[in-house]
Amino acid sequence: MRGLVIPSLLVILWEAGSRAGLLPPDSTSRPSEIVRAFVQALADGSLLRDTWLTFEAALLGFAIAGVLGILLGAILGLSPRTERTVGPSIEALRPIPAVALIPLALLVFGFGLRMEAAVVAFAAVWPVLLVTVSAVRGVEPRLLELSRSLELSFPAQLRKIILPAAFARIAVGLRLALAISLVVAVTVEIVLNPRGLGHSMISAQQAMRSDLMYAQLLWLGFVGWALNKVAQR
């Protein structure tokens, strides 16, 4: 409960300042107006619809990044020779900002889910890949020798030996990737893609509905917090 003291005090000061005319009404709506806008958006279903559209792209991109990052990371972690070959290409691609790929993704996929998910996947794959490489290298060598002596195929090694031994560390990369996925999905929607919470926030701002924009922004913050709690568990 102590953690609510400062936010509650800020809300009270915000409401009082707005009613006293100390804050500009066109850019800082009253908290009471924000609550009304939130309830209305929740009641008409637009908030939940936009949330689902953002989550759809974020989770699809995250799933693609998770699969590719773990598979490629396991291969590179087990084969230093392969990493020396592929590593320079990875290091050349990794610094590219994900938003810089929006024009290319738009050219290939057009507007919509696939374009957004592709940009999200590019941004989220790197923490999974790098953490997986490090985690696989840390697997007990005797476990790898056991998998070879049993003549397990690579998919079987991955499923029965490598991932169970390394997953505690890989999960850290997945948590980072999940947070990045939501951030990038909203960013793509704000910049270009006409769908989801990001686009809805821009539309509210352009319509001078600052109450609705703040409601969506605060909701997005809560959703991000809840998603992080789920990832921790």
What percentage of amino acids are in beta strands? under 5%
Highest-level CATH class:
Mainly Alpha
Helix count, DSSP H or I runs of 4 or more residues: 10
CATH architectural label: Orthogonal Bundle
The biggest beta sheet is recorded as:
none
Give structural notes.
Helix 3 runs parallel beside helix 6. This protein has a single domain (36-232), classed as MetI-like (MetI-like fold), CATH 1.10.3720.10. The chain starts with a helix and ends with a helix. It contains ten helices and no strands. The model has no long low-confidence stretch (mean pLDDT 84). The relative contact order is 0.14. The protein has 233 residues and is mostly helical.
Strand-helix topology:
Layout: H1 5-19, H2 31-43, H3 46-78, H4 80-93, H5 102-109, H6 113-137, H7 141-149, H8 154-191, H9 196-206, H10 210-232
Helix pairs in contact: 2-10, 3-4, 3-6, 3-8, 3-9, 5-6, 6-8, 8-9, 8-10, 9-10
